[in-house]
Amino acid sequence: MASHGNGAHGARSRHLGDRRRGPLSRRAQSLHRGREHHGDLRRCEPHLDDPGRRALHRRGDDPEARVKRVALAAQRDLLALVLDTLVPASGEFPSAGAVALDHVLAVAATSLELESRLARTLQAVEEAARVDGTGDFARRGVDDRESILRRVEQSHPELFEVLVRHTYDGYYGHPTVIARLGLEPGPLHPRGHQVETAALPDLARVSARGPIYRQT
């Protein structure tokens, strides 16, 4: 993927929709997004088992979710290709398939509904790849794979967003990627990330002026 020119640092000039390809933020826009600060990517997983959610977020014990369950691990190779297409390797940055795959599989294993959603997303990818009779997703080139994912994003936006969210959680939470971004692996607190000091503005004139409001 790196040879194709698309970088995990987001330096590639070509765009998909309104986003640059490369390691990206997980906020839903189109196929690829611009990178966010890593601290914003450590959010909670969606509450897929929350009984108070609308029908879209069915509980893990929902009979329909149980019936639709597919062993996502059996589609490991396809999932890795999809992740590599979302975030290809570039320079010192690894691909998402190399560092986020195990995370996505592990998270899916904790929820029947989440596993079902991800499996349905992969099914949509395979169906989109075969629609023109050219072949399955694994046999396509990089540009074709990106085009296929773009179509799936448009036809199944909610499913696609779940895939992207967990891909980016696993990618930006991996120590290798954190180090490449110049941050230190580990929790943000209590030490926090290193912030460069900046010169403070001269407030002498403001202090000398005194208060400008009416005292009561």
What does this structure look like?
- The structure is a single chain.
- By secondary structure, the chain is mainly alpha-helical.
- Helix content is 41%, strand content 2%.
- It has one domain.
- A two-stranded antiparallel sheet has the order 1-2.
- A hairpin with a 2-residue loop joins strand 1 (15-16) and strand 2 (19-20).
- Helix 4 packs across helix 7 (157-172) and helix 6 packs across helix 7 (157-172).
- It is elongated.
- The chain starts with 14 loop residues before the first strand and ends in a 7-residue tail after the last helix.
- Mean pLDDT is 72; it is low at 1-7, 10-21, 24-30, 33-61 and 63-69.
Descriptive keywords:
216 residues; mainly alpha; two-stranded antiparallel sheet; disordered N terminus
The structural class is: mainly alpha
Global morphology: elongated
Mean pLDDT: 72
Secondary-structure element order, N to C: EEHHHHHHHHH
Low-confidence stretches: 1-7, 10-21, 24-30, 33-61, 63-69
Number of strands: 2
Helix content: 40-55%
Give the strand order, joined by hyphens, for the main sheet.
1-2
Q: For the report, how would you describe the main beta sheet? A: 2 strands, antiparallel
Indicate the radius of gyration in whole angstroms: 22 Å
Number of helices: 9
Q: Strand content of the residues, in percent?
A: under 5%
Number of domains: 1
Distance between the termini: 68 Å
